[in-house]
Design goal:
- The protein starts with a strand and ends with a helix.
- The chain is α/β, with parallel strands linked by helices.
- It folds into 2 domains: 183 residues, Rossmann fold; 61 residues, no CATH class.
- β1 and β2 form a beta hairpin.
- The chain is globular and about 65 Å long.
- GO terms for molecular function: ATP binding; ATP hydrolysis activity.
- Pfam families: ABC_tran, BCA_ABC_TP_C.
- It comes from Paracoccus methylarcula.
- This is ABC transporter ATP-binding protein.
Length: 262
């Protein structure tokens, strides 16, 4: 579904992404891991059109999407969430969901005067769909809550719910577990798996919680210093010497090894 070829993104002399090449297969839940500063979020931003690449290409379903703006990628079914949730704080949870689909009739002043019946039909349909999403995510009880009052985990669930309001094909989740308690993280993980199995969503997930990654993701791609270091099943990745060194550093890796042999 997504193919990245020799992608670079430089900030002056700093090479945040430095020749990364990878593929995300349709129907997969792919994990993307690596130490802080490995280039994971920058890679997401380039794929999702938030940042232009310095060089390299990005393809979706065989079509070149390199450098397309986020709103065009949104209409193609490519969505991206962020480490910090971007909710409309003063609006309710349901209203946040109903805001997502583009091209609504009520977005223009003339339509609010001349197409009132059509607007009411669309709003009723969006209201129904939003409630279906809330039920799916088991947060119907938060429908009337201001989004700004939600906990970190609830905001992450809301962001996931917003991807369900459109025909998403592939969703990039950036540190979905950041600031989320274990119970809500389990709820988020279950929702991701259900969306993948029941609705055919393809996911790519950045996360530092290896238990969460191992439970959800296959394959797992490892980045370090802006490049792809390794790829494979989670248990293989966690035994990979190069991956261990990239995360722990040579000194700590050798210390752990010596302690294990003692």
């Amino acid at each position: 579904m997504i193919r990245v070829e020799d992608l670079h993104r430089h900030f002056g002399g700093f090479r945040a992404v430095d020749g990364a090449s990878l593929s995300i297969e349709s129907g997969s839940i792919t994990g993307l891991i690596g130490p802080n500063g490995a280039g994971k979020s920058t890679l997401f931003n380039v794929i999702a059109g938030v940042l232009p690449p310095t060089s390299g290409r990005v393809f979706m379903d065989g079509q070149d999407i390199t450098g397309l703006p986020p709103h065009e990628l949104f209409h193609r079914g490519l969505l991206r969430t962020f480490q910090l949730a971007h909710e409309f704080a003063s609006m309710t949870v349901r209203e946040n969901l109903m805001m997502v689909p583009g091209g609504q009739t009520g977005e223009t002043i003339w339509s609010t005067w001349l197409q009132r019946a059509r607007i009411e039909r669309e709003e009723a349909e969006l209201h129904k769909k939003a409630d279906e999403v809330l039920d799916f995510l088991t947060i119907r009880h938060l429908a009337h809550e201001k989004a700004g009052n939600l906990s970190g985990g609830q905001k992450k669930l809301l962001e996931l719910g917003r991807t369900m309001m459109v025909d998403a094909k592939v969703v990039f989740l950036d540190e979905v577990g950041a600031g989320v308690n274990r119970t809500l993280l389990g709820t988020i993980g279950d929702a991701i798996v259900r969306l993948n199995r029941e609705r055919g969503y393809t996911f790519c997930v950045i996360e530092h919680d290896m238990d969460f990654i191992a439970k959800l993701c296959n394959p797992v791609i490892v980045m370090a210093t802006g490049q792809v270091l390794a790829e494979g099943a989670a248990d293989e990745i966690m035994q990979n010497e190069a991956v261990i060194e990239a995360y722990l550093g040579t000194g700590l890796k050798n210390k752990i090894k010596a302690e294990a042999e003692a």
